[in-house]
Amino acid sequence: MENNLDILIIGAGPIGIACALECKKRNWNYLVIEKGALTNSLFNYPKNMTFFSTSEKLEINDIPFISNNPKPNRDEALEYYRRVVTSNNLNIHLYETVEAVNKENDEFQISTNKKKYISKRVIIATGFYDIPKLLHVSGEELPKVTHYYKEAHNYSLQHVIVVGASNSAVDAALEIWRKGGRVTMVVRGESIGERVKYWVRPDIINRIKEGSIDAYFNSEIKKIGTDTVDIETPNGLITIPNDYVVALTGYLPNFKLLEQCGITSSDDEKHIPTYNTNTMESNVPGLFLAGVICGGKETHKWFIENSRIHAKRIAQYIEKKL
Asked: 319 to each of 17, 274, 289, 294, 316, how far by Cα in Å?
């Protein structure tokens, strides 16, 4: 086991990186463990994605983020956070998965798929992008169904259903249509989401109005076949031809990890974990939460720009107790 860690941070996204920077400034013995690539969630975003936030709101530790346009894209964000990590020589282990966190006496024992660690404190900053919300319909396991969207080229000249009406679904629908795909949107609600980027929402609404993109509102997929999809609409069940289903219905945090650590949560559907909003410490002393994981199922409430302060809150609280 690696002993004498002051802090072990789970997750190397922007907020995990911010936590590591706070540890380094204080000369604490820390380690960041990430199961995927550096900033794994951002890496899995669509290639042409543009952030809603401006670049200065994505900055961490007052390190300037310079982008070509006021709202940076995915590649610029990856370059920024990668340079922050490399220029500060942060201690990060990639492609290593945390399997268990157990507290014994005043120390945490952390087991991964590669080794074991002992740390005085643990910060969970794992985000929410790895567990998709499933449709739970027949045919969802077919290879033509995906819960992630990367780019549009492979959907050209194909019949594509995009499920959802959030930013990710709208971006995918527009890009696939512009690359020659025949797009049908299936939306459980009555309209395109109100939180869709303000410069994109009129575009998708106009494309639907003119008939370039078909859309079924107040509707749900009932069955996915090899070359068709059944959709329950307000006017009854319909079947349409289909080559691909891109189900962008949202994602969930790793609640199993939180439960295994002993972190409790609200009993309602929001599943918000228990933590002190001033210190970010959970109901397990010495175990802290940072970033979007704090929102439970309300993943739209926490972003980089409003949760980067979590790193400072945690570090300042720990510093006072030392």
From this structure: 18, 22, 17, 22, 5
